[in-house]
């Protein structure tokens, strides 16, 4: 029998659908911001929230939270997700060999990049995941995303929205102080999140409209040992039982340093990303993955301060269901 227990030990591992359904219905935000809403929980970010976040800047220090976008990335071709292919269409050599091609000796370089929008540090848009034929706000999936893209909740709607207070919960350092890294397959619970907040102190208290960053340390391990199964393999991540915590916290968005945000393998005998199925199409939560939280983790630990202004807008790619980003934390 499915319940809303926040203890992973009480999950029915044989009934993924039942566990998804009960949480999807309990934490659904359909209609909360009107039937035409396209932003979901990003609605929690308002102008006073941004103004308060801006007041957190005291040093002016900036930290990029993006992985590199290059051919040495983690992707292995699943669902045609390959690493970026960067090609020069004009070079210094071209200029030297053809000095008279342009007037008065001017030359230049140009380039092009081909890549899936979710191959490195990125946001999952609201059109990225469906639940039993439906997209966010109860719309038919086929009416939202077609071969022409997401014509309703395309990522472009969030282009000017995602600037707010960022707060880091460094689960790796909190739960594994010796290594700073959670082991693959570790399911982060609501109790873990609360304990981390208590240990880190008042600056990590999670509030409405925050962009929550959860560092597991898996990226550090992948960089040390090689990408291996980082893209789609076993990983630490959030338990499906954190869905209620995410809902009642009223965060605007969440991002992790892992490929898939939630714990892998997932917590059922047969399933694929069940927490995605709850939080994106039902809760309307924007999810970020493959963020580089190593430097910000060190900076926050050194300062004993876990909050900062965070700017993480997607590229306004019309109709996209995700976007590459270069999130910037400003302390």
From TrEMBL:
This is Cyclase family protein. The lineage of its organism: Bacteria, Bacillati, Actinomycetota, Actinomycetes, Micrococcales. SUPFAM superfamilies: Putative cyclase (SSF102198). InterPro entries: KFase/CYL (IPR007325), KFase_sf (IPR037175). It comes from the Bacteria. GO terms for molecular function: arylformamidase activity. It comes from Microbacterium caowuchunii. One of its GO terms (biological process) is L-tryptophan catabolic process to kynurenine.
């Amino acid at each position: 029998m499915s319940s809303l227990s926040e203890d992973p030990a009480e999950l029915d591992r044989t009934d993924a659908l039942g566990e998804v359904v009960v949480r999807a219905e309990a934490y659904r935000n359909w209609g909360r911001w009107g039937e035409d809403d396209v932003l979901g929980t990003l609605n929690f970010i308002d102008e006073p929230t941004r103004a308060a976040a801006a007041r957190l800047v005291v040093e002016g220090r900036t930290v990029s939270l993006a992985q590199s976008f290059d051919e040495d990335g983690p992707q292995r071709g699943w669902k045609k997700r390959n690493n970026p292919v960067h090609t020069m269409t004009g070079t210094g050599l071209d200029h030297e060999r053809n000095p008279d091609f342009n007037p008065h000796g001017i030359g230049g370089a140009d380039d092009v990049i081909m890549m899936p929008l979710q191959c490195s540090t990125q946001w999952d848009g609201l059109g990225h995941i469906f639940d039993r034929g439906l997209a966010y706000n109860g719309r038919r999936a086929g009416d939202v995303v077609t071969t022409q893209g997401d014509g309703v909740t395309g990522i472009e709607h969030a282009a000017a929205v995602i600037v707010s207070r960022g707060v880091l919960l460094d689960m790796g350092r909190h739960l594994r102080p010796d290594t700073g890294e959670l082991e693959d397959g570790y399911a982060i619970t609501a109790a873990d999140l609360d304990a981390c907040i208590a240990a880190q102190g008042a600056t990590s208290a999670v509030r409405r409209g925050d962009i929550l960053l959860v560092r597991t340390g898996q990226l550090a391990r992948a960089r040390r040992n090689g990408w291996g199964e980082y893209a789609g393999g076993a990983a630490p991540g959030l338990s499906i039982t954190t869905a209620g915590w995410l809902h009642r916290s009223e965060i605007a968005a969440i991002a992790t340093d892992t490929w898939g945000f939630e714990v892998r393998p997932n917590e059922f005998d047969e399933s694929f990303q069940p927490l995605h199925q709850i939080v994106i199409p039902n809760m309307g939560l924007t999810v970020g993955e493959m963020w580089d939280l190593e430097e910000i983790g060190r900076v926050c630990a050194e300062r004993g301060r876990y909050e900062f202004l965070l700017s993480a807008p997607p590229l306004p790619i019309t109709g996209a269901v995700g976007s590459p980003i270069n999130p910037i934390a400003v302390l």
